[in-house]
Amino acid sequence: MGETLGIGGHQRPRKERTDTWLTPPGIVRALGPFDLDPCAAPDPKPWATAATHYTWPAQDGLLLPWYGRVWLNPPYGRALGTWLAKMARHGCGTAFTFARTETKAFFDHVWNEADAILFLKGRVSFHHQDGSPARNGGAPSVLIAFGADDVERLMESGIEGKLLALKRPVMIHLALRQDPPMPAWREVVVQAIRSLGGRASLRALYEALEDHPKAKANGRHWQAKVRQTAAVVAQRVDTGQYALAV
């Protein structure tokens, strides 16, 4: 790629010795699962960002095919616009970058192509390649949704910030969604566990929620959202078993 800043798709937040900076895992978990990270951090990775990783320099994500939901934390520098352009063409996934809203890359591929943006509250603290915490990025960050499914995931993520719809269908969707509001995944999963006696297996939760509007709205990834939410709102008491606190 000929780009030294942000190797592995992870931006350089401050001037330090390393060029590899990892996205906080909580952000990826809140928005996932993802099928592909086309510019993943070098191996060994302390955590996965997607089911499949293209890792520079062995794999050039700008040349290889993209598929499914993509997680993109592109290298920060001259190649940023090229990565965002490919993401816009792909049209399914979420990008994470600094909020350089005045730049040509942002105007060409975010303002004009994306469906929604979540401006994050505060400044994100990245991680070193070994997973240890690093300092904050020194600039505001933004999550960029391409496609209706990723807009919904930004809305449901619980990540603090301000959501801005960029396309008319998304604006209408946001307006309609307000009345009546669809319950959050936390509420849905807690209610399902309560209805099953306060303790439930993942299989029982899947059966109870397979026809729920939230499951249908999340498409093929709804079971992953149930698993992630159960791990947050309930205590794991056995393999695949969760119980609400008394």
From TrEMBL:
Tell me what this protein is called. Adenine methyltransferase
Coiled-coil regions, chain positions:
none
**Molecular function (GO) terms listed?**
DNA binding; site-specific DNA-methyltransferase (adenine-specific) activity
Q: Which portions of the sequence form the region Disordered?
A: 1-20
Gene Ontology annotations of biological process type: DNA restriction-modification system
- InterPro entries given for it? Dam_MeTrfase (IPR008593)
Lineage here is: Bacteria, Pseudomonadati, Pseudomonadota, Alphaproteobacteria, Hyphomicrobiales
